[in-house]
Design goal:
With 154 residues, the chain is of the alpha+beta class. It has 2 domains: 41 residues, Winged helix-like DNA-binding domain superfamily/Winged helix DNA-binding domain (Arc Repressor Mutant, subunit A, Orthogonal Bundle); 75 residues, Lrp/AsnC effector binding domain/regulation of amino acid metabolism (RAM) domain (Alpha-Beta Plaits, 2-Layer Sandwich), CATH 3.30.70.920. It is 36% helix and 19% strand. The protein contains 5 helices and 4 strands, in the order H-H-H-E-H-E-E-H-E. Strands 2-3-1-4 form a 4-stranded antiparallel sheet. A hairpin with a 6-residue loop joins strand 2 and strand 3. The longest helix is centred in the N-terminal third of the chain and has 13 residues.
Length: 154
């Protein structure tokens, strides 16, 4: 963790990660700080890039995307141009929630959502298989999400 964060900053970040819509007054009360001091700290944390954004986290099942698939991608090569082309194009696939460059057996691991297995088959055929340099794919379907968080340890 960045050494410019003190314990108060960590407490603020801890609360905001779990309750992004909390009012400044309530946040200040939770971390035992005046409202004005709390507001200044949050502004600094935003300006310094510790807080990147505020978002609404949707329930995938409720909006019609109950199927979660983890896809291991192997590319035909490791040239910078190929990696850059793959990364540029995979970012345009709306069903891909995450893409990670890996060390190990796969070059990339993708987290993909789909409406059902037929929808995933379409995404696989029409989008993922056509990405630059894709040589092989291995897909694993999540049966159930046991635990999920976006909160980093503070």
């Amino acid at each position: 963790m960045d050494s410019t964060l003190d314990e108060m900053d960590r407490r603020i970040l801890h609360v905001l990660q779990r309750q992004g819509r909390i009012s400044n007054a309530d946040l200040a009360e939770r971390v035992h700080l005046s409202a004005s001091a709390c507001h200044r700290r949050v502004q600094r944390l935003e300006k310094d890039g510790f807080i990147r954004d505020y978002v609404a986290l949707l329930t995938a099942r409720k909006i019609g995307y109950p199927t979660m698939v983890f896809v291991e991608i192997s590319l035909s090569g490791q040239a910078d141009e190929l990696l850059e082309a793959f990364e540029r194009e995979v970012a345009l696939v709306p069903e891909v929630l995450e893409c990670h460059l890996m060390a190990g057996t796969a070059d990339y691991i993708l987290k993909v959502v789909a409406r059902d297995t037929d929808d995933f088959a379409r995404v696989h055929r029409q989008k993922l298989a056509r990405l630059p340099g894709v040589q092989g794919m291995q897909s694993s379907f999540a049966l159930r999400t046991v635990f999920k968080t976006t909160a980093l340890p503070t």
